[in-house]
Amino acid sequence: MRADSLSLKGEGTPGSHTLARVSIDLTVQQQLDRLGVPYELFPCDPALADTVNFCAAYGFAPEDSANTILVIGKSDPPVYAACVVLSHTRLDVNRTVRQRLGTRKASFAPAEETRAITGMEIGGVTIFGLPEHLPIWIDARVMDRERIVLGGGSRSFKIIASPRILLRLPRAEVVEGLANVIEGG
Length: 185
Prior knowledge:
Number of helices: 4
CATH class: Alpha Beta
Strand content: 25-35%
Structural class: alpha+beta
Strand order of the largest sheet: 7-4-5-8-11
CATH architecture: Alpha-Beta Complex
Mean pLDDT: 86
CATH topology: YbaK protein
Largest sheet: 5 strands, mixed
Number of strands: 12
Helix content: 10-25%
Low-confidence stretches: 1-22
Number of domains: 1
């Protein structure tokens, strides 16, 4: 279900009324508001939602961009987790993620499976509004940032907040070594 939101800043942020209409998933908005941590919705061109294009077009540092990635542990039945890593790092799927999932193999969930489980398109996947059973793992480097830019649940906007907002999520766990810095990144 989608709802139009006129607020570009979340609860707890005084004087935050709209300058633009943003289409936001109602589940995402409700969870953000319940967390009680200030956040901002940043509208963007859906064609520029992918991290590299977004940062270049809107002037955000890639080091502040945090991607939410759905991973799958290949077992019967498969197991899933949502991981949050900075864009200049690479999720350690073959070691850390696989071990945490308790499976022999793990990989990034395909786009179709991500859409089916999260209800979100790649480039807009956010940690907010996910199914309640999914574990949430956050690379420790994310918590070192002053602010982070996350997917907004659609390719039409991003969420900007302090990384501490992630710790308000019920299944969130900070994991050392969840991701590795990309050489030259």
